[in-house]
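Section 5: illustrative case.
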């Protein structure tokens, strides 16, 4: 079986973007596929695990193997599924959000492909998790852009997998080759159950603690934008409904809930680990019931039901700056809010969010006075 060349595939990013300079793959994906094509022999029975495929370039290329695909990103999973379908490829892919979901617990993979994630904490979690599913015959191939691979990256592979070397750089991308040791360095503990790698910090003025799992945004300390937004939180009334959108560890929604025992909270994020973190943060600080959704922005939530939405939108996706996710957040927020509902957004000053917000809200105003961050209040959603 020969992997499909990436330039023969029709691949799209998700969410869709009008910026034609942004591709659904990069030279690290191309480097990986080229190396596999020239150096490995695979067939339909080969057991392949792909970790952190961004938009489906790797999964589509190797779809005939029916690989197991592990991603913490709901958006990446959506992109992979859509690109498989669009290219009329095998869609029988086993998507997992952690290794406990592997349906064959005694499987040993022939090939493991890893795109290097942004956070070393996530990489550590993933390397530790796969140790029980590999042996000394497993081929471990990793790749990233040169700016994504550091000495610390190699150190982690050496520690959790085995002896690791790197390739020469091509088109600013680099491969990593790891030889699994005879004794897998697997932890006996489960991150989800025992929270072995969780960062805890306290926001003392609100008497709230944040609990963050690996790879989750701002898991070690409160980010500056969220700290600014704390000064402009809404005054909620009894039995109102509030969404913490792109919730991360859930710290913002939890702080608001601290002062309103009747508030109905909904936490949404596209990261499985983020939503798990938000559950922990909310349960340990508040303990009341709340809703938690791993979803594409606000997909699946009812329209016209919410009084307040808090949002600290990302402006990067897979290390590339883009406003497409923020735009989708604003659009769907307007749909979910009641007629007099309010959206509060914190953002870097250089981001041009006012025109975007004005597409979906009749009134948009700046309510903060910070030199680096802006808090926008958008209300009266256009229906």
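Designed sequence:
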């Amino acid at each position: 079986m020969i992997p499909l060349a990436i330039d023969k595939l029709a691949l799209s990013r998700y969410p869709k973007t009008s910026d034609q300079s942004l591709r659904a793959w990069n030279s690290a994906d191309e480097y990986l596929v080229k190396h596999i094509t020239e150096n490995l022999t695979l067939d339909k029975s080969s057991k392949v695990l792909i970790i952190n495929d961004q938009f489906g370039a790797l999964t589509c290329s190797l779809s005939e193997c029916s690989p197991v695909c592990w991603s913490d990103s709901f958006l990446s999973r959506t992109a992979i599924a859509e690109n498989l379908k669009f290219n009329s490829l095998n869609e029988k892919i086993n998507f997992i959000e952690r290794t406990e979901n592997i349906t064959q617990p005694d499987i040993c993979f022939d090939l493991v492909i890893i795109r290097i994630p942004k956070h070393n904490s996530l990489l550590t979690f993933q390397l530790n998790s796969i140790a029980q599913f590999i042996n000394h015959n497993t081929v471990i191939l990793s790749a990233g852009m040169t700016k994504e691979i550091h000495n610390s990256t190699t150190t982690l592979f050496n520690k959790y997998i085995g002896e690791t070397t790197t390739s020469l750089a091509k088109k600013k991308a680099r491969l990593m080759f790891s030889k699994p040791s005879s004794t897998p360095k697997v932890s006996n503990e489960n991150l989800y159950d025992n929270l072995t790698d969780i960062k805890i910090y306290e926001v003392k003025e609100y008497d709230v603690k944040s609990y963050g799992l690996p790879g989750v945004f701002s898991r070690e300390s409160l980010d500056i934008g969220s700290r600014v937004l704390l000064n402009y939180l809404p005054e909620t009334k009894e039995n109102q409904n509030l969404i913490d959108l792109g919730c991360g560890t859930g710290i913002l929604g939890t702080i608001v809930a601290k002062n309103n025992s009747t508030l109905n909270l909904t936490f949404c994020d596209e990261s499985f680990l983020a939503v798990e973190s938000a559950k922990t943060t909310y349960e340990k600080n508040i303990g009341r019931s709340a809703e938690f959704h791993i979803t594409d922005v606000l997909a699946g939530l009812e329209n016209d039901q919410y009084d307040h939405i808090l949002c600290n939108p990302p402006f990067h996706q897979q290390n590339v700056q883009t406003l497409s996710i923020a735009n989708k957040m604003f659009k769907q927020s307007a749909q979910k809010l009641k007629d007099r509902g309010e959206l509060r957004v914190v953002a870097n000053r250089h981001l041009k969010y006012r025109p975007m917000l004005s597409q979906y809200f009749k009134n948009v105003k700046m309510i903060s006075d910070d030199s680096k961050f802006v808090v926008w209040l958008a209300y009266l959603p256009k229906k």
